[in-house]
């Protein structure tokens, strides 16, 4: 479970699409009060920040569209409540860049 805190344009295909998939899973856990992953640190940091999560999703969608993917899974904007900005990190963005560098993928980090 991870939502990165770096621009989607810097993510490789695998991390862009993976984040999008995980964001949807986390959105469901939070908005529908599901048990799975509800105590995961990444999930906890987004509780009370669904507006910020919604905005991150829109950034991902914009990048996916730019790359030619056809997005067909919008989030319910009516559920996008809470804080607009995410300022709590499991790993700070500079650490996230190090993590991505170690993966040896095509992320632009």
Commentary on this structure:
The chain is an all-alpha fold and 109 residues long. The chain is built from four helices and no strands. It starts with 12 loop residues before the first helix and ends in a 6-residue tail after the last helix. Helix content is 47%, strand content 0%. The chain has helices spanning 13-31, 41-44, 50-66, 93-103.
Question: Which terms summarize this structure?
Answer:
single chain; mainly alpha
How far apart are the first and last residues' alpha carbons, in Å? 20 Å
Q: Name the quaternary structure.
A: single chain
Category by helix and strand content: mainly alpha
- The average pLDDT is 97
Which residues sit in consecutive blocks of at least 5 with pLDDT less than 50?
none
SSE diagram, text form:
Layout: H1 13-31, H2 41-44, H3 50-66, H4 93-103
Helix pairs in contact: 1-3
Task: Offer a concise description of the structure.
The chain is mostly helical. The chain is built from four helices and no strands.
């Amino acid at each position: 479970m991870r939502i990165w805190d770096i621009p989607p344009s810097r993510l490789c295909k695998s991390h862009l699409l993976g984040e999008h998939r995980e964001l949807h899973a986390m959105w469901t856990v939070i908005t529908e009060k599901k048990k799975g992953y509800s105590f995961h640190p990444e999930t906890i940091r987004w509780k009370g920040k669904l507006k910020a999560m919604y905005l991150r999703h829109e950034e991902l969608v914009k990048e996916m569209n730019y790359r030619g993917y056809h997005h067909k899974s919008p989030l319910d904007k009516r559920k996008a409540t809470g804080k607009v900005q995410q300022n709590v990190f499991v790993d700070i963005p500079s650490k996230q860049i190090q993590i991505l560098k170690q993966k040896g993928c095509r992320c632009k980090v």
